[in-house]
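Summarise what follows for lecture notes:
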Amino acid sequence: MEQTINIEQIFGILRKHHKLIAISTIACTLLAFIVTFFIMTPQYSASTELLVNRKQNNDANVQYNQVQTDVQMINTYKDLIVKPVIMDTVESKINKGNSHKLADIDQMVSISNNQNSQVFSINVKADNAYTAADIANTTAETFQKKAPKIMSGTDNVSIISKAKPDLTPVSPKNKLNILIGLVLGLLLGVGIAFIRELTDKTVKDESFLTDELGLTSLGVINNIAEKDIIKKAIMSVSSSRLTRRG
């Protein structure tokens, strides 16, 4: 038969397994704390902004068309910056004189821009705030120098905002991770409690036989502890001896 649970039974299950739920919640929260503060590597972000203009024509209509073309060319610039023609030079400059060589710098770099804007940002994430700022600025300077040679007409690349080290990590999100651990631990504990309860087929009372299994109750045999049986037997023997003596 299909087993249903009402609100009273739900709270009863939660009360019955409150220790399990508490242990699960504490364990998962503690695990999230350890992973966040001792295992995950903090990541820092830095950004620099560039403005790219091509040679302007005195005709107003031509100027408008050039601006629209510049906006559309942003996608090309975004692709160009992360290509080896730029990144190889950036990697060479960053690693020059450093004992700890960085690899796959292009994986740390992302490009973003606002819609219909000639300004775009070079964003870098690294495990060191100063390294992130250095990569962002070096990438911008390299693009500023190489862009006119690679793309004809791109003769005016301006760095309008240089990256500065931000010592506040962007990840991991400490409070969020711990909150997630707490919620997952709570849900895990509640889930285990309900699974154990729903899969437990032990007969706990007469209603289980009549309501759940549809059987007819012929009576109830109470459970008698072994010590009570022994005590009752001793009393019975003693009473019998006294009767015989009398």
The first strand starts at residue 44 and ends at 53. The chain has eight helices and four strands. The beta strands are 44-53, 109-113, 119-126, 156-161.
